[in-house]
Specification:
Length: 269
């Protein structure tokens, strides 16, 4: 009987809409190196055309039909204008990407990793990007945080795909981006105060997955947990909720998407 129950749980886990390896890793996507390089170049050109020093960028790391309603992007990071070192040792202007990635062999744990545009898209399953460009003043403040020890101190390596952004015990990539933004806005604070401010002003994304699937996912997948939600409706930080927050409080200069055809269009929040 025990074996049958385990088998049933594993079968149900295959249809959980927030699966393990949820698209926030280094590599492991479906794009070729050529596709990743092309998509990365399109993004860098769009950012440079807007003189962006810091942008929040998102890619799709899981097929859309596997994502909960209202969530379109799985991995969110900062792109920072800098000097990029090429394979021959020379340096050219470009963007460095500041990521929180799940560990390949322990998806319930994460690391802070910097990489470049092609690397960023090697974890994607489609050539589509979403971008939030903060106001110049917010960009200036973000640079101050990202370039300081405070950046690493904001990282919590205990990862959950559906981390509660109001709780300190778990973190995902979008919550890390949000915590950096909060520090840029308010300065360094006690962690509990930072979360209190988020509870007051940030509206998290409801995770519209059945309780049964979430329960099964938390049993079968190490990077899915309900422990930090304390029995309340499951909500998490998403790219869309981050964009709406920035738009509401006039922290955003522009939001746009780059489609699979390379065309830029305004971002619908």
């Amino acid at each position: 009987m025990k074996r049958q129950i385990v088998a049933m749980l594993m079968l149900l886990a295959t249809v959980v809409a927030v699966p393990a390896q949820a698209g926030s890793q280094a590599g492991g996507g479906e794009l070729t190196v050529e596709q990743a390089a092309r998509t990365g170049k399109q993004l860098e050109q769009a950012l440079a055309a807007r003189s962006a020093r810091v942008a929040i960028v998102a890619r799709v790391g899981r097929p859309r039909d596997q994502l909960p309603d209202g969530i379109r992007y799985t991995h969110v990071a900062y792109a920072v204008y800098s000097q990029v070192q090429l394979a021959d040792g020379s340096q050219v202007p470009g963007y460095t990407f500041y990521n929180l990635y799940q560990q390949a062999d322990r998806p319930e744990r994460s690391d802070l990793v910097t990489d470049y545009a092609t690397d960023f898209y090697l974890g994607a399953v489609m050539e589509e990007t979403a971008v939030l460009i903060p106001t110049p003043e917010v960009q200036r403040r973000l640079l101050g945080v990202i370039g300081s020890p405070a950046y690493a101190q904001l990282h919590n390596p205990d990862y959950s795909v559906i981390a509660n952004p109001y709780d300190l015990s778990r973190q995902n990539c979008t919550e890390m981006v949000l915590d950096v933004l909060q520090t840029a806005l308010y300065g360094e604070q006690a962690p509990a105060q930072r979360k209190a401010n988020l509870s007051a002003y940030f509206e998290a994304q409801p995770v519209n997955v059945s309780p049964l699937k979430l329960m099964v996912g938390s049993v079968a997948a190490p990077d899915v947990t309900l422990a930090d939600h304390h029995g309340e409706p499951v909500r998490t930080a998403s790219f869309g909720s981050l964009g709406r927050y920035m738009s509401k409080y006039t922290l955003l200069s522009e939001g746009f998407e780059i489609g699979t055809d390379g065309q830029v269009k305004p971002l619908a929040l």
